[in-house]
């Protein structure tokens, strides 16, 4: 759970429970003692009035108005916050949509600057293509739970039960799609799974495996280096922008001249057919230079398309 979201839910927890122990926070939010202590200091700095007591029966007590948290914020910060919450609440592809709207409503109801907030009403309009939505916010929450809990699991993906066991690393949003970043525990290879194609997640237990793979370095684990294939694609500027939009483990671009580029990357051998499908979508803006296996896979894909006409 992102820190900002966790702090928001922790404030709600404090207001709802009034009295709690440090262990209660650690259990509720699945965090360590040191993280819980740091979070308590941060929510106190945000204006949550907490009284702490020591001893066997010691803990924390929320004092004052339990329904209102005072936060020192400037007019410009308030406008930026309202705009951000309004924007994301109107995007159809976000999880926790209800929470965003509730935060915005509470911000408005507890603010003495309603007139300032009202300036945004009717100014912005959002057009959503509506072609893709998270099938279930429950699924998204389950993904978050598995990641935070260091659980390993099996997956039913696009109507196929994957045989391997996986661990969740994080969630990625790119090109109007949400991806679940997972690692195969046995091979330590990372996969990016389109969340809309996940049919089921089946928890197997807790694991300490693959702790070294994070959202900061997962791209290094998308390709198995000892069996990886080097690919090179000649492209114009249009094709290059399309290629850069895909989820490569890594890539390098050589500038041949003002209108021509060489796109270099590494892919797993078994992914050649999939890469060929991506290249076909670039049309005449790209041409495979190497390897021959990728060139042949593109030709095969084009032949399938031509045969339909």
UniProtKB/TrEMBL annotation:
Short name of any one Pfam family annotated for the protein: HTH_11
Q: Which InterPro entries match?
A: CBASS_pafABC_assoc_protein (IPR051534), HTH_11 (IPR013196), WH-like_DNA-bd_sf (IPR036388), WH_DNA-bd_sf (IPR036390)
Per the record, the domain of life is Bacteria
Tell me the ranges covered by the Helix-turn-helix type domain, including all copies: 6-60
Quote the protein name from its UniProt record: Transcriptional regulator
Protein species of origin: Staphylococcus auricularis
């Amino acid at each position: 759970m992102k820190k900002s979201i966790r702090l928001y839910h922790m404030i709600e927890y404090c207001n709802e429970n009034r009295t709690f122990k440090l262990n209660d926070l650690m259990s509720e939010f699945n965090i360590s003692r040191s993280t819980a202590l740091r979070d308590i200091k941060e929510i106190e700095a945000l204006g949550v009035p907490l009284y702490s007591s020591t001893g066997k029966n010691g803990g924390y007590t929320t004092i004052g108005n339990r329904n209102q948290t005072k936060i020192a914020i400037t007019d410009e910060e308030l406008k930026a916050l309202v705009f951000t919450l309004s924007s994301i609440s109107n995007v159809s592809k976000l999880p926790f949509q209800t929470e965003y709207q509730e935060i915005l409503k509470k911000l408005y109801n507890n603010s003495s600057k309603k007139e300032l907030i009202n300036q945004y009403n009717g100014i912005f309009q959002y057009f959503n293509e509506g072609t893709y939505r998270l099938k279930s916010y429950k699924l998204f929450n389950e993904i978050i739970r598995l990641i935070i809990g260091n659980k390993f699991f099996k997956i039913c993906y696009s109507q196929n039960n994957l045989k391997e066991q996986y661990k969740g690393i994080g969630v990625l949003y790119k090109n109007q799609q949400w991806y679940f970043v997972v690692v195969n525990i046995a091979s330590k290879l990372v996969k990016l799974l389109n969340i809309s194609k996940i049919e089921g997640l089946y928890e197997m237990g807790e694991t300490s495996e693959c702790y070294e793979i994070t959202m900061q370095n997962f791209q290094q684990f998308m390709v198995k280096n000892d069996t990886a294939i080097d690919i090179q694609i000649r492209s114009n500027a249009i094709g290059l922008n399309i290629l850069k939009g895909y989820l490569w483990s890594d890539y390098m671009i050589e500038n041949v001249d003002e209108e021509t580029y060489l796109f270099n990357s590494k892919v797993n051998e078994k992914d050649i057919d999939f890469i060929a499908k991506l290249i076909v979508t670039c049309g005449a803006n790209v041409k495979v230079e190497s390897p021959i296996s990728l060139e042949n896979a593109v030709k095969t894909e084009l032949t399938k398309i031509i045969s339909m006409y």
